[in-house]
Hints:
42% of the residues lie in helices and 20% in strands. It is α/β, with parallel strands linked by helices. Strand 6 and strand 7 (147-152) form a beta hairpin. The protein starts with a helix and ends with a helix. The mean pLDDT is 88.
Amino acid sequence: xxxxxxxxxxxxxxxxxxxxxxxxxxxxxxxxxxxxxxxxxxxxxxxxxxxxxxxxxxxxxxxxxxxxxxxxxxxxxxxxxxxxxxxxxxxxxxxxxxxxxxxxxxxxxxxxxxxxxxxxxxxxxxxxxxxxxxxxxxxxxxxxxxxxxxxxxxxxxxxxxxxxxxxxxxxxxxxxxxx
Length: 179
């Protein structure tokens, strides 16, 4: 039996390597899909006022984008977010994650502000509730505050057109038929 142990270990390791090579790490399933967006008391980035997350989501289909000034991919994604904001297809809520207001403001002053509202999550408390492990991360939340989509990594025009925009249109139709 001792002769076969290295062979068994090799086969098991080879299988895990083979199985992992074909997986898209950007498509990790989120346990939050279909569940309510975490309802925490948060602080507004600009006004310092406190409110609950659900109070900002209620009644709107909202694209929630987790970003930081120190995030290189967030810079690359930002122009796409500016284009989405100009299209007026969806409310946009930003979460400034583990950042400083000074650096966050500098980032937005230089690149523009696509968000209607920004939550300041300096300690990463909301990010922790959302399971954020890398920025940027983007969520689509329906008008009842339910998370319908999650994207880890940069939003691209293709992802917007093929995945998010059709879902927004579907949620709008669904909301009209339920009223």
